[in-house]
Write a structure and sequence with these properties.
By secondary structure, the protein is α/β, with parallel strands linked by helices. The protein has helices at about 35-40, 65-80, 95-110, 140-145, 155, 160-165, 165-175, 205-210, 235-249, and strands spanning about 10, 20-25, 45-50, 90-95, 115-120, 190-195, 220-225. About 35% of the residues lie in helices and about 15% in strands. The protein starts with 7 loop residues before the first strand and ends with a helix.
Length: about 250
């Protein structure tokens, strides 16, 4: 019997460094973050999560809640060779930032040290429940995705390709829309919040709102671009993550 693909993807063998766990955005597959692995392979042991319901896990049913996604990912990470007792950096974009936050909560509860939680293009966890729900009708949802600025991705810019990704995207948005988190829930890890200067969905104020969710420090940085600015800012984000690692070392 074939073994299920599982949660963790590594595109490049590590050349040294502590683990970096990357949590993709809604509807996103692990391969979207291959450029980050390429750029950071000399500095981190980079792994990217693959959620059920996409790419090589397309036949699996997507999970219904973000805490379930984080729990499935952390369970596999905790027993993997990537969990070596070294401090972990966790990074997520958009919905992936909330998954990264929940992953960090689980890691800290299990005694796995988290050096830094990097969040990108995301409102703080306690604000998610205040947001209007995402569209559920196919064409409206495609319009919403097509309207995201600075996609930097041929897939996001191609309506027909995005139509193929609708089942995973719908499931992820539904999981995001049912998420809630009290304002007093905190992680011990420092948080580095990043965003696009032209993002119509996440403001600089939203990024500063992550302060309430850490008992440590918050740093905020803005880049040129829209909601998916990160595809054009791989080097800049990588430099910040490496700098944070060196300061904490």
């Amino acid at each position: 019997m074939a073994t299920a693909p599982g949660w963790i993807r590594q595109f490049h063998k590590s050349r040294g460094g502590a683990p970096l766990v990357i949590c993709p955005h809604a509807g996103g597959g692990a391969s979207t973050y291959r450029p980050f692995s390429t750029r950071l392979r000399d500095d981190f042991d980079v792994v990217v999560l693959q959620y059920p319901g996409r790419q090589d896990r397309a036949r699996e049913t997507p999970l219904e809640t973000l805490p379930e996604i984080a729990a499935g990912a952390f369970e596999e990470f905790a027993r993997s060779p990537y969990n070596r007792g070294e401090p972990v950096t966790v990074f997520g974009h958009s919905m992936g930032s909330i998954v990264a936050f929940e992953f960090t909560r689980l890691a800290e509860a299990a005694g796995v040290p988290v050096r830094l939680l990097g969040v990108s293009g995301a409102v703080p966890p306690s604000r998610v429940a205040e947001l209007p729900p995402h569209p559920t009708e196919d064409e409206q949802l495609l319009d919403h995705v097509s309207g995201l600025q600075g996609t930097g991705s041929d897939v996001l810019g191609n309506r027909e390709l995005m139509r193929m990704a609708l089942p995973a995207l719908k499931a992820d948005y539904a999981a995001f829309d049912r998420y809630s988190c009290p304002a007093d829930v905190q992680v011990r890890a420092a948080i580095h919040a990043m965003g696009g200067s032209d993002d119509e969905y996440v403001t600089m104020g939203d990024l500063y709102g992550w302060q309430r969710h850490t008992s440590a420090d918050l740093r905020v940085d803005m880049f040129d671009g829209g909601h998916f600015y990160l595809h054009d800012q791989v080097d800049g984000i990588a430099e910040l993550l490496v700098a944070e690692r060196e300061v904490a070392a």
